[in-house]
Amino acid sequence: MKKLLLLLLLFPAFTFAQSLTGKWASEEDKTKMVEFKADGTMMFIDPEEPDAMEGLEIKYKQTEEDGKKYLTCDLSFQGEPMDSQKNVYKLEGDKLTIIDNPDEAQPGKSPENVYLRVKP
């Protein structure tokens, strides 16, 4: 019973630790960021082109299938649906790796985007 109670107390902390919510800086170029909001929307931040994403809305959801974690992003521009992308992602502490086109990815050669959590 004590183990179950401890597990229940730690579950919210574990869930929070696995959350994408917050800002993430590109490992390759720390000025380029992605922000995941608690309301299920996300945005890209590029100081070189601050208005490049104006009018674009991206909604995201996290799912898991066959042991793989997926990040599905639905894009719309000024309210009109545009595209939907489903990518594999790995979250290891403060490191987020998003694998583009997972169906076409080859081990060791997959195009990966690596982001590091920005501490508030």
Short description:
13% of the residues lie in helices and 48% in strands. With 120 residues, the chain is mainly β.
What does this molecule look like?
Strand 6 and strand 7 form a beta hairpin. Strands 1-2-3-4-5-6-7-8 form an eight-stranded antiparallel β-barrel. The protein is 13% helix and 48% strand. The longest helix has 16 residues. By secondary structure, it is mainly β.
Q: Beta-strand percentage?
A: over 45%
**Rg:** 16 Å
| Weakly predicted, low-confidence segments | 1-17
Note the overall shape: globular
DSSP helix count? 1
Main sheet strand line-up: 1-2-3-4-5-6-7-8
Helix content: 10-25%
Structure class: mainly beta
* Helix-strand string: HEEEEEEEE
Question: Mind summarizing the main beta sheet?
Answer: 8 strands, antiparallel, barrel
Report the count of strand segments.
8
* Distance between the ends: 37 Å
What's the average pLDDT? 80
